[in-house]
């Protein structure tokens, strides 16, 4: 189909609304909806939280004039099943809306499919595929989680022009620009969890909280720590009662240390396998069972290398700063390829500026 300028305009607005729900709707997808009548918006909505009204219902409830004869633009095919909320297709039909314009088809194995077919049987005009790529990107975490049980994993790291994540002394504050750091906080705002290795905790003592942008509950913090070296005095543990925190460790950890961290508010998970190291696939499966749909893996080194090697990373985002430091602190360690033909490659690559930095993002093939 050919997307008209009108369709693109209103679907972009629906996408803007959907983004307001990112990081808040798990295990449901982030969805936005706009109702248009006679060329004017009469209703808008987005899915705010699991169990709350879906975007379409929110848009219908927000209107101040009759929606009869109107068009609704929605980023994802309306659901057609009873869950915590009634089917959205029924609300659309009952409202008298005459046309439904959809961005993404619901391809998940959940029971939300065939919404478009029911709308057509009810006599509504239905068009699909408007800004499909942009709408698909909105729900890639939902699709990954609903089809595999695993969260979508984004590897984010900041490196110098020569590929280093720290100086020879281990100093890494700051590699990236102020603009890039603010963007990372906005990105955390859209994730269900952030994950780092204990080496990052020991070197930087980060908070891993959202300190810029719209207010929200902070994402779940996950620290991979095979020997449980994290200090109870670290900022992460000191705030564990305020911000949900998981420490993933192994059977090498001492019971007394586990109890000390749990007394501070952290949830300590012991990997049942992994040969002395935290089994990352097991950890992601555990997070998936807790309805974590998206994880931002912040950091570099062995944890980044292990996640890539085990084919657990879906997307990467590298912030490249115009600095040269030399040394041996590389962004990805723990494995190497012999031939360039065997290198891990990216698809759907995006390149943009962030302050003085260059950001390269893409999906691992």
From TrEMBL:
EC number: 1.1.1.193, 3.5.4.26
Sequence ranges assigned to domain CMP/dCMP-type deaminase in this UniProt record: 5-127
Annotated GO biological process: riboflavin biosynthetic process
Coiled-coil ranges (or none): none
This protein's record includes keyword Hydrolase: yes
Record Pfam families: dCMP_cyt_deam_1, RibD_C
Functional pathway: Cofactor biosynthesis; riboflavin biosynthesis; 5-amino-6-(D-ribitylamino)uracil from GTP: step 3/4; Cofactor biosynthesis; riboflavin biosynthesis; 5-amino-6-(D-ribitylamino)uracil from GTP: step 2/4
Keywords: Hydrolase, Metal-binding, Multifunctional enzyme, NADP, Oxidoreductase, Riboflavin biosynthesis, Zinc
InterPro entries with a match to the protein in the record: APOBEC/CMP_deaminase_Zn-bd (IPR016192), CMP_dCMP_dom (IPR002125), Cytidine_deaminase-like (IPR016193), DHFR-like_dom_sf (IPR024072), Eubact_RibD (IPR004794), RibD_C (IPR011549), RibDG_C (IPR002734), Riboflavin_Biosynth_HTPR (IPR050765)
Record GO terms (molecular function): 5-amino-6-(5-phosphoribosylamino)uracil reductase activity; diaminohydroxyphosphoribosylaminopyrimidine deaminase activity; NADP binding; zinc ion binding
Record SUPFAM superfamilies: Cytidine deaminase-like, Dihydrofolate reductase-like
Entry cofactors: Zn(2+)
Protein name (Swiss-Prot/TrEMBL): Diaminohydroxyphosphoribosylaminopyrimidine deaminase / 5-amino-6-(5-phosphoribosylamino)uracil reductase
Species: hydrothermal vent metagenome
